[in-house]
Amino acid sequence: MKVTGKTITAGCIGRIVIFRDSKDQRVQMARSIGRLLKGFHGLSTLPELGVQLNHLPTCVSLRTASVRTKVALSLPFPPKPRDFSLPNSSWGPEMLGLYEHYNSLCEVETEGGEKREGPWQRLPSYNRSLKYATGGVYLSKIIQSKARLFTRNMRDPGAAFEYVLFVNEGEQRCVCIFQAGHLLEGPPGHVHGGAIATMIDTVTGTHASQLSEPVMTANLNINYRSPIPLGSTVLIESCVDKKEGRKTFISCKVTSTDGSKLHTDATALFLSIGVSHLLLRE
Amino acid sequence: MKVTGKTITAGCIGRIVIFRDSKDQRVQMARSIGRLLKGFHGLSTLPELGVQLNHLPTCVSLRTASVRTKVALSLPFPPKPRDFSLPNSSWGPEMLGLYEHYNSLCEVETEGGEKREGPWQRLPSYNRSLKYATGGVYLSKIIQSKARLFTRNMRDPGAAFEYVLFVNEGEQRCVCIFQAGHLLEGPPGHVHGGAIATMIDTVTGTHASQLSEPVMTANLNINYRSPIPLGSTVLIESCVDKKEGRKTFISCKVTSTDGSKLHTDATALFLSIGVSHLLLRE
Asked: What residue stretches are annotated with the Thioesterase domain (chains A, B) (predicted)?
């Protein structure tokens, strides 16, 4: 396969930059691809491509002045990743009702009948973190390729974490509707404290990263007030207390869906992190 | 089936107390069994047994003076529950080495060549919480029957939480060897903060419940110092700070296996709970 164009689009996950047809660069980039994908699946057809992968793509589309060629990589995931925050058959009436309520606030109609963005925004959610070429160098390729986001690692709908996040930038608020599946048990019939901590980390961390660069959790301080029955739906609401340099302070509470019962409250501290060291230099 | 003995052994999970052949008690207990198991599986053969189930057994063994009869219940799990804290093929050399180290301290040889209990004790670990007759009454039977302990809900060895706990009663210390599987990802290539919180809750909670009655988590305060690479093995050590009435205060740290790197430290507060209301009255 010969590549004569200058740019390459696609990868549903990542951005790909193609180089001019310099032999050295081509060989170098072919090696990068080989390093990235070796042990992941047999990719013997691609070594002639002179591309630089920042993220692991699921398909590659090559465009020259007149011709567009698409190469699907035989990865074990579908090319279009599943958005786990959309309704599925496991969602109960409470979860669905609240989803529809907040979803209806994501788009508003103006007086002229036009549709525009509303105060709330639904955040999509996938089961893979982005993979960086130079990230996780000490991890075996097998672990890298099989890694899945902790809260989205189950294929069986409703078995574990079912949740959807909505963010309101104007009010600096975030709301998560969370339905706790049967695989999250801690005390008999109730949700594990670690599963609740996981959702609090997820909601507050997502909220903090919406406001700035990517963040890392520095502290979680969680008070468990009342256990959450397994199978039930609860609301997790977070709001920003303050921002100081790299620090973002967030508070959070978990309540029954009508807000009458407080299950858990927490504070969280996040630190912004630079990500430039994770990216290949161009 | 007629039961003439006074005691009943077995059930791999629970203790069973048999009553004398009083008709009233027999009927009452048959109803209890029916309530416990209805919707769980068809158990039409047992209503004549006059037994009181505190926990859900997987098999029942009846012993009179001369005859022993075993009744296997057709539960969807193996009669002997799997102990998840024993080595499996996914354990790496670090995990195995540390397991063997602490396991060797569970039994010591006296000068006379006799073997006796050592200072450490390995704690077995199963994937089901005990089910109580009157617990979780608001849960659907489907959720109850499918419920699994959060940290042991994966069948695939090595995919998520691989861990084993050792407790030293004399020193009031607990050590957990934890190998983080590929399904626990948070930041790319690293363990999710919620998965770390889950292990801290598990270790400190198990430790607290070793010292007193069953406990519930009241507070977790966790400082994340350094991320844990996915696939790596770490040590989680907890020690009791103090006990005040129903409160147990525990501190905990997560380090590299040689103790040189501090990944996380935490404090935890647990409240003892009475469980008498969860048991049938005898």
From this structure: 189-260
B185 chain-A contacts, CB cut-off 8 A: 129, 147-150
Per the CB < 8 Å rule, is A278 touching B188?
yes
Task: Give DSSP secondary structure letters for A123-189.
Answer: EP--S-PPP-TTTTTTS-HHHHHH--BGGG---STTSSEEEEEEEETTTTEEEEEEEE-GGGB-STT
Q: How far is B99 from chain A (nearest CA, A)?
A: 22
Q: What's the start-to-end Cα distance of chain A, in Å?
A: 24
Task: Give A173-212 pLDDT, tens digit per residue.
Answer: 999 999 999 999 999 889 999 999 999 999 999 999 998 7
* Partner-chain residue, chosen from B136, B198, B218, that has the shortest CB–CB distance to A194: B198
Where are the domains positioned within chain B?
Answer: 8-72, 93-124+156-278
Say whether pLDDT at B141 is over 80: no
- What residue of B is the nearest CA neighbor of A136? B189
Residue A62 and residue A75: Cα distance in Å, rounded? Answer: 18
How far is A185 from A228, CA to CA, in rounded Å?
Answer: 10
Cα dihedral across residues A109, A110, A116, A120: positive or negative: negative
Establish how many alpha carbons lie within 13 A of residue A146's alpha carbon, considering only the half-sphere containing its beta carbon. Answer: 17
State the residue for tokens 């980039």. A29
Q: Do A129 and B186 touch (CB under 8 A)?
A: yes
In this prediction the ipTM stands at: 0.72
* Residues B43 and B273: beta-carbon distance below 8 Å: no
A180 in reach of chain B (CB within 8 A):
no
Catalytic one among B21, B24, B201, B265? Answer: B201
Q: Given A21, A24, A83, A201, which residue is catalytic? A: A201
Q: Under CATH, which number does the domain A93-124+156-278 receive?
A: 3.10.129.10
Residue A182 burial (10 A CB sphere; 0-12, 13-18, 19+): buried
Q: Which of A7-16, A112-121, A187-196, B90-99 has the lowest mean pLDDT?
A: A7-16
Closest approach of A60 to chain B, Cα-based (Å): 22
pLDDT given for residue B211 in this prediction:
85
Residue of A156, A161, A185, A199 to mutate for B, most B C-beta atoms under 10 A = A185
Lookup result for tokens 């109803």? B31
Between the CA of residue A165 and those of A6, A104, A174, A223, B83, what are the distances in Å?
Answer: 39, 14, 7, 22, 37
Contact B188 A223 (CB under 8 A): no
Task: For residue B46, name the pLDDT band (cuts at 50, 70, 90).
Answer: very low
Residue B138: which pLDDT band, with cuts at 50, 70 and 90? low
A156 is catalytic: no
Residues 152 through 171 of chain B touching chain A, CB cutoff 8 Å: 153, 160
Give tens-digit pLDDT for B172-230: 999 999 999 999 999 988 999 999 999 999 999 999 999 878 899 999 999 999 999 99
